[in-house]
Amino acid sequence: FILWMGWFGFNGGSEFGFTSHVPQIFINTFLASACGAITMLIWQYYLRKQIEIEPVLNGLLAGLVASSASCDVVSPASAVVIGIVAAIVMQAGVRVLDHFQLDDTIGVIPVHGFAGVWGTLAVALFIPAEFLAHSRLEQFLVQLLGCAVCFIWCFSFCWITLRVISKYIRLRATEDEEKQGLNMAEHGATSEMYELLNLMELHIKGNSHLGEDLDENSDVGLIARQYNRVTQIRDLALNELKDRTENLELTRRELEEKAERLKQANTDAEAASRAKSEFLANMSHEIRTPMTAVLGYTDLLLEESWGRPGSIELLDVIKRNGNYLLELINDILDLSKIESGNLSIETIPFPLLEKLKEIQALMKVRAEYQKLQFKLSFNGNIPVEIQSDPTRFKQILINLIGNAIKFTPDGGKVSVETSLLNSSSNEPLLEFKIRDTGIGMTAGQIDMLYQPFVQADSSTTRKFGGTGLGLAISKRLAEMLGGDLYCESVPGEGTVFTLTIGIGNPAPLEFHTNPQVDFKQIPVNLQESGITESDSEMIIRGSCSVLLAEDGVDNQRLISTLLKKEKAHVVLAENGDIAVRRALNAEQQGKPFDVILMDMSMPVLDGYGATRKLRELGIETPIIALTAHAMTGDRQKCIDAGCTDYTTKPVNREKLRNIVVKYQCHAEPELITE
Fold it and tell me: In this predicted model, which residue has the larger pLDDT, 628 or 389?
């Protein structure tokens, strides 16, 4: 306040008397200082949300200093601008000093240095043109030069003088002495605050276990006590963190070891799975190939053994056991596919009653052979068409009905009741109850019923035969078809198997309102049911020529014999290379084969390579993969190689006839020469 009042005298005294300029000087001085103070008030309120008196007074003084050089000639509006800018420049100077860590306790340098320079430069910017001896730019440069000369002269003189004196006399304390305080540095005096600060410094350097006993009744003692509490809590937290870190490290090592063991176990499991798949594939191939000859020649002998009942009975035994072995292989492959997740389920629409008619026609023959009553009935309305897998649907029902027939003594009853259930889900379910009056099972036997290779008991296995795979496969297939399979049984009274399957969402859903009557009117599909009669047989045209690529001599003789019995012309090839040459030669002679039967495992060139080569040569003859490979993906592998169709060994006369008839043409037969 004293400086502010004195500054009016300082600025007004420059006139050396009370002239007409003195009121103007007072007004401009007041406006510049007031605007500087107001600017700092606004700056603190909006930017810091806190008002301190010192920055406001410094803004006031900055306005006074900046207005001194031009207060007698500038307008009041210019004085306002000079004051505002002076406060801003002063605050910028404070920031500069803080940035370079220069001491200026009362703000002399920002107020008199930075704001003073601004006031000097403002002379050239705001005084009227008539007071200027030069242009504004020239005047501005003159003012700037003056400021620069003053700064260089004052700073250089002071710096050189103090530098010289400091060589002989210590002018300031060292950095450590400043931290300690001059009394401590010069006289060895100490204080509780110094001891506390020294202790904190030691803690920073890592000696956190050191302590200091201070008077708890003093201010510093209270601070020290609170600080000690903080360090104790920190030490406890650090110890807990250390323990947890050690536990986490131990857990991490255990998890890494378990992960490594799991990785190794997974590798071993994958290797075992590959070994199992390779074993099953090889087993299937090695058994199916000779089974083709065994069953095929058995059929041929049966055809030629009329009139010799003893021979027919022996051949029937061979054929029955051969078919059983083939069913066993198929069941093992199905179970393997299910367990590995490679069994694909198709969802297609098919007529329900027609499929049930096929199943009834097939199973009725078995039931009548054992002198059983077999009945298929319906409870309520039945969908005309469902969406599911017809092959797997038929497989499940045939297995369940076949078991019921097998375990029911002569004169018993087997029935199948079909009904539509309203499921809790959006998809309705079909329910089939297969009842029999057979030997029944205990609760313990039912618990083991769906385990692979397990039957009710050992005596059942010896008496009735079987592998125990059928129900395990049926259970899993039922679940894959959106349903389930469960059993109720009373020993000595019989068993009820309940099968449910999803019917999909056929739109619109139509029903048989009287399914029992509609069922009786459906004709039997002999081919689908597996029953053949002479008038239903398909016939190979005499014009059909077949190239048989097969390396096994027994299978060559069998398949060629079966085809020749069907009036087909057969050309043999022992390997894929010969097959390619003979097919190409026939094509070049304009006498292409109607069908090529290609074994996929042959020496020199296998069936896959031969098929690819034939397709690359542009031969479009239908190529049927005739292979003992029946694992997941084998069919697609053959199709990808270029085969038109795929069938598995063993083959019989009917299977060969059907596959050849499907692709035969109508050309007249001609002799093919190599």
Answer: 389
